[in-house]
Write a structure and sequence with these properties.
The protein is 42% helix and 28% strand. By secondary structure, the protein is α/β, with parallel strands linked by helices.
Length: 281
């Protein structure tokens, strides 16, 4: 029997993950003197409220000890584990997963995947592995399913400012300067495991620009799409849904996903994005 494990930066709600049979180990969010477990002890909107009030937020990777505990637990009832995580370029989480597997002497039973992704793209890769497992796949086939999704998907996010990413060390000052211009919004995408500012667009045209880019890339191919949003804003999410519906993409499956506390701490309030990948109808 094969277990699927990931970390909380996939931004799957804990209850959704439980229903899918996916084990999640949380990163931590540091607000002042409090260290809170991502998604479990802090809600995403609490992070945005704290940032808007001028507060600072930092994050910590999953510890090696936490991975050891999760792996021991799963290996009691499973023969193998596929452990899929946030890009090693963005967090030490995947390195701690490797250290835990080594400490347990269970390298032949635990397969660790550096997805090169985070947030909804990571969730998409993890769900693909889970679907493969439920279809009776071997560990290697499940790994290939996750890695294929990671290769095929395209995700872009737009932020109000690159300041939060710079504070967290996820981009340098040169990247921040590239993105921060009055009336413009930086567009971010995953490149070789890093989150980089790829262009800037006028704030009023940002949604259409992102969707046009997906249309140019995929044309009429059937797609699975995800709308990601930083914070619970029903009116704004409805606008993004309407834009997606009317843009001409061939959407056969879709979901809306909130960005979680750890991801939100780095991208800041007002962030949103679209992800798409080809699927069979």
């Amino acid at each position: 029997m094969l277990a699927v494990l990931t970390d909380s930066t996939c931004d799957l709600h804990p209850e959704t993950a439980r229903q899918l049979g996916i084990r999640i180990v949380p990163l931590s969010v540091q607000l002042g003197s409090r260290s809170l477990m991502d998604w479990q002890e802090i809600d995403p909107d609490a992070v945005y409220d704290h940032l808007r009030a001028g507060g600072t937020v930092s994050t910590q990777p999953v510890s090696t000890a936490a991975f050891e505990t999760a792996y021991r637990d799963l290996l009691v009832s499973h023969q193998q584990i596929i452990s899929i995580h946030i890009s090693g370029q963005l967090s030490e989480t995947v390195q701690h997963a490797r250290e835990a597997a080594e400490r347990l002497g269970a390298g032949n039973r635990i397969h660790i995947v550096d997805s090169g992704l985070a947030s909804s793209p990571l969730a998409e890769a993890v769900i693909a592995a889970r679907d493969a497992v439920w279809a009776g796949a071997t560990l290697e086939t499940a790994r290939q399913a996750a890695e294929t999704v990671g290769r095929d998907l395209h995700a872009e996010f737009t932020v109000t400012s690159l300041e939060y990413l710079r504070r967290g060390g996820r981009i340098g000052r040169a990247q921040e300067f590239f993105g921060n211009m009055l009336g413009m919004r930086p567009v971010l995408a995953f490149t070789n495991g890093q989150l980089k500012a790829t262009r800037r667009v006028r704030a009023a045209n940002a949604t259409q620009d992102l969707l046009n880019n997906l249309k140019e890339r995929y044309d009429t191919a059937p797609l699975s799409v995800t709308i990601s949003h930083a914070g619970r804003d029903p009116a704004r999410i409805a606008e993004l849904r309407a834009a997606m519906t009317s843009c001409g993409l061939n959407v056969v499956k879709g979901r809306v996903q909130l960005m979680g506390p750890v991801i939100g701490a780095h991208v800041g309030p007002g962030t949103y994005g679209f992800m798409a990948r080809p699927v069979e109808e």
